[in-house]
Amino acid sequence: MIFLTEEQVRERCGSDGKLHLGPTERLTPAAGEFLRGHNCKVVEDGPGACGCAAKETPAPEAPAAAPQEPAREAATPPADAGRNVEHTYLDAQTVVSKSHPRIFLRGRLDTLIAETVLTQTSLAAASRIPDAIKNGLADINAWLWQILQAEVSGSPVPEQTMCGMNAAVLREVARDPQTYLNQGHIMPDPSLGPCVALLNWLRARIREVEVAAVQVNIGRQDLLESLNAVSSAVYVLMLLTVVAESGREISQVGSCGKP
Question: What is the pLDDT of residues 48-105, one digit of tens each?
């Protein structure tokens, strides 16, 4: 099934005031609003092979369901439903514009997960990076997915770990790495190498999403605390990378924070 956006119907609505809609095409809510506002009729074309005549109908009386949730036509309309803006589903019952703060935050989280995957693929080829660190990045990826799913569903973020360390232990190790890793704090510097630089970039991106969550006033303390813990987790991975690249052993990483 293909869903046409407002921009697409603008281009296809002919000078005769008709829009030809193929048998596999449907309209997004914004496209339906545009057609009604311009009194444009919809002509539903039958399958060409069978020679069926086209069926002409007036512009849709109600917005079509969103592509992701075709069964939710009775959802609550957004306050700006009369404007020519694109909409999406905030939850099972509420349609909002794509400028909604929570939709913005979901986009930032989605981008952050993509950036985590890019970091994973880059470090996968680094021969000097132990598997424990690469597995830690996989834990970070799963953690961010849990945060995104919790934001969408409204459910609490389940407790997560990275290399066997929970959020409390990760914060302690990040606060005092000399005690737990025999490694002092580090500052971003080219001398630490490309792997540490890449991890630091990811850590900074996580902090940006954490700030964005505060700015949109999401009201989810569990989500904010989890994002903060993820940034600590990546900093711990940076420290472990420095330790590993200097030839020191990190085989006991899972027991970090257990004096």
Answer: 333 333 444 454 444 444 444 444 444 444 555 445 567 676 665 667 676 777 788 8
Q: Tell me how far apart the alpha carbons of residues 150 and 165 are, in angstroms, rounded to a whole number.
A: 21
Contacts of 15-24 spanning 24+ positions with Cβ under 8 A: 17/41, 18/42, 18/43, 18/56, 19/43, 20/45, 20/54, 21/45, 23/47
How confident is the model over 124-146, as pLDDT tens digits?
888 778 889 999 999 999 999 99
Q: Computed from CA positions of residues 37, 38, 44, 49, in that sequence, does the dihedral angle turn out positive or negative?
A: negative
The letter for the amino acid at 155 is S
CB 44 within 8 A of CB 64: no
**The CA-based dihedral angle spanning residues 247, 252, 258, 259, taken in that order and rounded to the nearest 10 degrees:** -50
Pick the most confident of 59-73, 99-113, 172-186. 172-186
DSSP secondary structure code for residue 27 in this structure: E
Strand ranges in 29-119 using DSSP code E only, listed in sequence order: 41-44, 55-57, 87-89, 95-97
- Please give the DSSP secondary-structure letter assigned to residue 255: G
Of 125, 118, 159, 123, give the one whose Cα is nearest residue 141: 118
- 34 burial type by CB count under 10 A (0-12 exposed, 13-18 middle, 19+ buried): buried
Cα–Cα distance for residue pair 27/25, rounded to 1 Å:
7
Instruction: Report the distance separating Cα 137 and Cα 234, nearest Å.
Output: 8
